[in-house]
Amino acid sequence: MNMITNHMPTAELQAIDAAHHMHPFTDGAELAAKGARIITRAKGVMLTDSEGEEILDGMAGLWCVNIGYGREEMAEVAARQMRELPFYNTFFQTSHVPAIALAQRIAELAPGDLNHVFFASGGSDANDTNLRLVRHYWAAKGKPSKTVVISRKNAYHGSTMAGASLGGMGGMHAQGGLPIPGIVHINQPHWYAEGGEMSPEEFGLARARELEAKIAELGEDNVAAFIAEPIQGAGGVIIPPETYWPEIQRICDAHEILLIADEVICGFGRTGNWFGSQTLGIRPHIMTVAKGLSSGYVPIGASIVWDEVADTVARAGDFNHGYTYSGHPVSCAVALENLRIIEEEQLIENVATGTGPYLKEKWEQLADHPLVGEAHTRGFMGTLALTPDKARRAPFEAAEGTVGLICRGHCFKGNLVMRHVGDRMIIAPPLIFQKSDVDLLIERAVKALDLTLAEIK
Ligand code: PLP
């Protein structure tokens, strides 16, 4: 077998990749025809590819590299932990220091009575845990009929059977017989695309009240929980109207429904607070976290659980659930170091009051571009709607996503990672972004928008 290295010609790497590597969310035939862009190194907010091109990462990897790339401290902590205790499990009455320390730190950071942590390997399996946990909780409370979880169309909660079912992505449900039973979806608070003539405030209330209607339809005694991202990420950075979350909170409180905030993207600083729930005024019973917990340096996720739920489950005996890597010592040690860096380097302050307001000002000016119908940010999440007709918020005649894909292609060719969701362009940069990084991002984004406009005219 030949040795694969960074120094091999790109075409050779691409051919081996296409021959043997099945990629997530990728068209295999297209991959074989064009070849993947191969990333070889990264430092700070910049990626380097196998051709030596430097690419500005406007997506923090997959919304996760909050502290930026190439932090030596993280590598040192990982190496130290691997030497001391590379693995031990947390099953059957055993524990270890990294898991204990990280659970305590997360409990300190999490708001309210969210003081218990169940570890997973990522966000999808943490949401699987949540589904089992809420059903087990209600059964332990003597209400075993409370099993249905209500979610939203166009939500993203992961790729496992439960994660993808909780999510509301039509393209995912179309493959593999999803959603699994016991999960239902209401409409999303996406005013720009679906608000019609309503004001955002009216629309936010109307969409929240769909939850109350769905609970009434199913019967309160059959509903376990409602799950939602504070701000939908993979759905296109959908920032809900101000009226939405207070009404959702009222409904969950009034009907004895557990509220699960999926903080996999919003958590650990991205919205300008430790958690998106704090930014949007949500009081969840469970928060799902992953990504920014370790800044993507190692795989880890968790469910952060309200005292009453955790105590009820603890009193009910064994919770017959767990992953080999629940509380993996290396992941926990690295995540702790990541949280230290976020705090000591005041990265959340950078989002809230440092670079964040500058990003907002510059990004929202993109709404003046002829191709852009709206441009918004919340913290370090940004969204642009592309449209042929600003006044009507109209979609393009071409199939949805055609223009977004063209724009994404121009971004990538111009060495900017900006993702498209349909005909929306989105960003979620590392939390270390400085004003000069914003300037570069805007310069490259405008160039890509201009080229897109020229191409579709
Ligand atoms: N939940 C949300 C809100 C996400 O954005 C994601 C991933 O993008 C997940 C869950 C799934 O996390 P993972 O890919 O770590 O399984």
TrEMBL record:
Pfam families xrefs: Aminotran_3 (PF00202)
InterPro entries documented for this protein: Aminotrans_3, Aminotrans_3_PPA_site, PyrdxlP-dep_Trfase, PyrdxlP-dep_Trfase_major, PyrdxlP-dep_Trfase_small
CDD domains: OAT_like
Needed co-factor(s): pyridoxal 5'-phosphate
A GO molecular-function descriptor: transaminase activity
Keywords (A to Z) from UniProt: Aminotransferase, Pyridoxal phosphate, Transferase
SUPFAM superfamilies: PLP-dependent transferases
Keyword Transferase: yes
Family: Belongs to the class-III pyridoxal-phosphate-dependent aminotransferase family.
UniProt name for this protein: Aspartate aminotransferase family protein
